[in-house]
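Forum: Protein Structure Q&A
Topic: Joint prediction for protein chains with partners

I've read a bunch of threads here and the consensus seems to be that you should model interacting components together rather than docking separate models afterwards. I'd like to see that in practice. Below is the full input, 345 residues plus whatever partners are listed. Could one of the regulars post the assembled result?
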Amino acid sequence: MNPPTVLLLPDVPLQSLNTFGLPARAAWFAAIESPAQLAGLIARPEWKRLRRFVLGGGSNLILAGDFDGLVLYVRISGRERVAEDADAWFVRAGAGENWHDFVSWTLDRGWPGLENLALIPGTVGAAPVQNIGAYGLEMAERFYCLEAVDLATGETVFLDRAACRFGYRDSVFKREAAGCFLITAVTFRLPKRWQPVMGYADVARELDMQGIAKPTARDVAGAVIAIRSCKLPDPAQIGNAGSFFKNPQVDAATFKSLIARHPDLPHYPQPDGTVKLAAGWLIERCGWKGKNLGPAGVYERQALVLVNRGGARGEDVLRLAQAIQASVRAMFGVDLEPEPVVLGL
Ligand code: EPU
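Posted by a regular:
Agreed with the consensus. Here's the joint model:
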């Protein structure tokens, strides 16, 4: 049987497909609804000469300009429980599924484990790329394996946790394997002996305020949703890509001299002896919170989030990001690394 054909659309606007709302166009665009469709596309003669970019929910993306290649817009759907053993449920979802809808669906079925990651924008397929994390949990802790198509050969590959090389907001897909694969489905391992992850002070405080002493997974999700809704701008209202920078990690000596000068600096010691700092605090101390540079700005309730005040282009956002990096470097001697992927430079 011939694989189903995919329409290659020319000159497609991407503004509504990135949560920052940045204007840019793709020279070519294809919506991928199944691995078979992708295989059909890879077999076509024009495939080899086109640069390509895999687009999910566009929630961790800065479009710096037009893209002269082919955007592969992942629309692969489906969610199912694929296996169960004495310790866990194994749940698989198509890469194009909305992340938060998937989390809600698992909780509705009584499979806990992803509740701390509720309300993160984006798709299931994008979650492993930057190993999404929030409120004391990283996706890697619930990840089992993923299926992906090798964009050079068209072959399907299965990658386990070790192969994905997850780190803090990091994976092989942002490094050695950048641009090599299109993730088609992800399987999670959700523990039957569930314990709430309550290490993050905000979550414990929110549950306490709600008078909940023994939270269910749904309660934790509710608390996370309340905190996120209060601190982070809804991309449907204000364009943004969540945290714009990673929280920087510094060595012990650097930390010692920083804390001597700034005793109230929030910090999180890491197992390897380094110390993670709160980038939002550093940015706020530089006076950027609530400030604008042209049509791009720093969110007034969370300085780590850059926002589109209306009509911003990629270059406006990057100019603001560079100005913030320069301030933080000048005041603290710390380099901030952007978290989103930048496309079109
Ligand atoms: N802070 C400030 N000023 C600010 C923002 C933060 O002083 O404007 C201080 C806070 O008071 C707190 C510390 O910085 O002491 C940390 O702030 P927060 O709890 O808001 O978390 P974050 O470190 O800024 C990280 C993730 C978020 C995630 C939250 C909760 C990164 C880059 N960001 O933010 O992830 O939701 O923790 O776990 O690790 C994302 O990656 O897009 C994202 C939103």
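The mean pLDDT is 96.
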